[in-house]
Design goal:
The structure holds 2 protein chains of 2 kinds.
Chain A (H helix, E strand, L loop, with lengths): L4 H11 L10 H6 L4 H31 L6 H23 L1 H7 L10 H12 L4 H29 L11 H16 L9
Helix pairs in contact in A: 1-7, 3-4, 3-6, 3-7, 4-5, 4-6, 6-7, 7-8
Chain B lengths: L1 H8 L3 H10 L10 H7 L3 H24 L9 H23 L1 H7 L10 H11 L4 H31 L1 E2 L2 E2 L14 H28 L1
Antiparallel strand pairs in B: 1-2
Helix pairs in contact in B: 2-8, 4-5, 4-7, 4-8, 5-7, 7-8
The chains are: A mainly alpha, B mainly alpha.
Chain lengths: 194, 212
């Protein structure tokens, strides 16, 4: 596991994009990507939670392995994530109530965003050190935001298109996501490695 | 007490079938997409994931339903998450003990069952309001519906992408595998295709009803 920081960043941003290659965080990806205006803040909020969660998970993991309490890992991670989501929610409610309302139910649902827990679990599984974990979560968050913004722009365009009623809705979003994912496969090999 | 009795009598076949068909988590509600798409590269993986989720779903719904009158409303979500995480840890260790190769194939997605929206959704929407037996039956229906959905996806992707089903070769050696179907984009395409099929069937049956 001697990946350089730039390799990790590029891999999580493009080649192993959390949403499009690893299928993490699909619920908000399909749910919030209707409009560009909400997609970007959602991406940034998620990135922030990921960063906090990754930092806490790193510390927790040290603590848990010191005391041989590995079986508590999952439970403690999820509690940490839930509390940091609560924090973001409170900050956002105070400083940007309009955005808070726009994100609605999807804000507390960051807790159950697999991408956030995924960051914590993968960095543990891959034995990343502190700097690597930080880069991993930043890259993951940036990748998530990128996918969300791309998808939202596509869907805004599609509202003007004449789509058969049968295809409209989730099926169309999924096929779009498939095409995006196909495009991202073109990045394979970037970042020197795999 | 009379209210509880009433709810107990409210168990119908539909309590079970709701999850299997009418509110199928994969095809109708489109919930829990992450494990759905990530592990369905083969039918075997799909079924094991489905069964693991079924177990967590049923046991956490049972526990949530048993303690539904004890938990204060403000901390209920946190309580549910901790309950679910406990059962997932259990499943994680069981799978590791039973089959290491399966454990490696499913990877982190076993632990990610915790954040499967279906489980928290069921705990919150159904188990926290209903007596244990009804909650368990409903959870079982949901879990089976989820497994069926996963199996449908996994089988389609394995047949198209590898020419196999449950590891058995179907088409002989001249079959040219459609590799993209077992890669990430294939997951999106196959699920999109299934949803299309279902919405086509629904619109046909609605048209049929309108004609009569």
């Amino acid at each position: 596991m001697n990946e350089s920081l730039s390799q990790i960043f590029i891999a999580t941003l493009l080649t192993n994009n959390f949403v499009l290659a690893m299928f993490l965080g699909l619920c908000p990806f399909l749910g919030v990507s209707g409009r560009l205006g909400t997609a970007l803040p959602m991406g940034i909020a998620t990135t922030f939670v990921m960063l906090v969660a990754s930092l806490c998970a790193y510390g927790l993991n040290l603590l848990l392995s010191a005391f041989h309490l590995d079986f508590l890992r999952l439970i403690s991670y999820i509690v940490v994530i839930a509390s940091s989501v609560q924090l973001v929610e409170m900050v956002m409610k105070k400083y940007s109530p309009a955005l808070f309302r726009a994100l609605g139910i999807y804000l507390p649902l960051i807790t159950t965003n697999c991408a956030v827990l995924g960051v914590a679990l993968f960095q543990t599984a891959r034995d990343y050190d502190f700097a690597q974990s930080l880069t991993f979560s930043l890259g993951g968050g940036a990748g998530f935001t990128l996918a969300l913004v791309l998808m939202a722009s596509l869907r805004e365009r599609l509202q003007l298109a004449n789509v058969p009623t049968l295809v409209q809705g989730t099926a169309l979003s999924l096929i779009l996501a498939g095409l995006l994912s196909l495009t991202f496969m073109g990045f394979a090999g970037l970042g020197g490695g795999e | 007490m009379s209210l509880k009795k009433e709810a107990d009598e409210g168990i119908t076949f539909d309590t079970f079938m709701e999850g299997v068909w009418r509110q199928n988590p994969v095809f109708v509600m489109v919930l829990g997409m992450c494990p759905t798409l990530a592990v369905t590269v083969s039918a075997v993986n799909a079924v094991s994931m489905g069964v693991a989720t079924l177990f967590v779903l049923v046991s956490s719904c049972l526990l949530v339903s048993l303690i539904r009158n004890l938990v204060p409303k403000e901390v209920r979500i946190a309580t549910y998450i901790v309950i679910i995480a406990t059962f997932v840890t259990l499943v994680d260790y069981i799978i590791q003990a039973v089959s290491l190769s399966l454990y490696e194939a499913l990877g982190a997605f076993i632990q990610l069952i915790v954040v499967n929206c279906i489980i928290l959704g069921r705990a919150e929407a159904h188990a926290s309001k209903n007596p244990p037996l009804k909650a368990v039956i409903n959870a079982m229906g949901m879990g089976i519906g989820f497994t069926i959905g996963l199996l449908a996806l996994g089988a389609t992707r394995e047949i198209l992408g590898a020419g196999k089903l449950f590891g058995f070769s179907l088409f002989g050696e001249h079959f040219q595998p459609w590799v993209v179907m077992v890669l990430p984009p294939g997951g999106f395409f196959v699920l999109g295709g299934w949803l299309l099929l279902f919405s086509h069937m629904r619109s046909r049956s609605e048209k049929g009803a309108a004609h009569e």
